[in-house]
Write a structure and sequence with these properties.
This protein is 46% helix and 20% strand. By secondary structure, it is an alpha/beta fold. The chain starts with 19 loop residues before the first helix and ends with a helix. Bound molecules: ligand C2E and calcium ion (CA) (3 copies). The site of one calcium ion has 4 residues, from loops. It comes from Aromatoleum tolulyticum.
Length: 277
């Protein structure tokens, strides 16, 4: 087998250039595949500058019966065009909360981040789905971070604020994913219950050599300091990138340098052994 999560079966290779017929086929196969249990949860660890594992991001994969492990870049955008993204999103949240609860029973404070698609979040039932998953799994809300994007926040702000406040009151945390790639207005950061900013990997990777990316990273860190937000850098691949970040501020690292996404059960077994549970 290839490296976890990095296999791209030829059939699904052209993630951007799918024809309508291919997209339709992927949608149909995914719709049938989710109830058959074909989704897989992968986890990628996040580390503090001192090397403590402080959490992990949940990243979905699709174990296709013929085509092997399919990356989310191929099927998440297609799922996002219909309510399939709701089904997928609930499955991922359920798995993540189940793992949080399993870890907690072993005395381990596992914190997981889950990607939330705007289409899923905008559904009126979103908050009740989240509460239902928390109730059923027994996961502690404070161990769950929802990663949303700036694009979500831009439209229908009052509805988004109300929903976020309600979930935040339960203890759920919010992170702005791909921060810096969307709109430039920062006013919403004060209005919304946001706990964390995630610096997109394009900035992280270029910052050591590109002065404008470096300035952007420094600005994000300054904003985060002002508003007392946690910062996670994604896509850290080299020691040079990690050192650059550490020299500029307090940053949690996520990237291939520290660990690739791996199947959740493998990852949990390894991690609980290391944590001495
Ligand atoms: P994202 O949320 O920005 O996730 C980070 C992506 O960067 C992941 O790709 C991760 O594997 C990859 N990555 C992590 N470290 C490194 C690194 O050091 N170098 C490089 N080059 N890449 C790194 P992945 O798992 O293929 O996911 C792609 C996108 O698919 C995610 O981007 C997210 O937008 C979406 N996605 C993944 N899982 C879910 C999910 O459960 N729900 C939703 N709605 N979207 C998801
Ligand atoms: Ca993410
Ligand atoms: Ca990203
Ligand atoms: Ca993203």
């Amino acid at each position: 087998a290839k490296e976890s999560g990095e296999s791209h079966p030829a059939f699904f290779e052209a993630s951007m250039g799918e024809t309508a017929a291919e997209s339709f086929r992927i949608e149909r196969e995914l719709r049938a595949g989710i109830p058959r249990g074909e989704l897989r949860l992968f986890l990628q660890p996040q580390f503090s500058a001192s090397g403590d594992m402080v959490g992990a991001e949940a990243l979905v994969r699709w174990q296709h019966p013929q085509r092997g492990l399919v990356a989310p870049g191929v099927f998440v955008p297609i799922a996002e065009e219909s309510d399939l993204i709701v089904e997928l999103g609930i499955w991922v949240m359920n798995e993540a909360c189940r793992l949080i609860a399993v870890a907690a029973r072993q005395g381990l404070p596992l914190a997981l981040s889950v990607n939330i698609s705007p289409r899923h979040f905008r559904r009126p039932e979103f908050n009740s789905w989240v509460r239902e998953v928390l109730d059923r799994t027994g996961a502690e809300p404070a161990r769950l971070t929802l990663e949303i994007t700036e694009g979500l926040i831009i439209d229908n702000v009052s509805d988004v604020v109300a929903k976020m406040n309600e979930l935040s009151a339960l203890g759920i945390r919010f992170s702005i994913d791909d921060f810096g790639t969307g709109y430039s207005s920062l006013a919403y950061l004060k209005r919304l219950p946001i706990d964390e900013l995630k610096i997109d990997k394009t900035f992280v990777q270029d910052a050591p050599h590109d002065p404008s990316d470096a300035a952007l990273v420094e600005t994000i860190l300054a904003v985060a300091r002002q508003l007392q937000l946690k910062v996670v850098a994604e896509g850290v691949e080299t020691a040079e990138q990690a050192e650059f970040l550490n020299s500029r501020g307090k940053v949690v690292h996520q990237g291939y340098l520290f660990g690739r996404p791996a199947p959740a059960d493998e990852w949990m077994a390894r991690w609980t052994a290391k944590a001495g549970a």
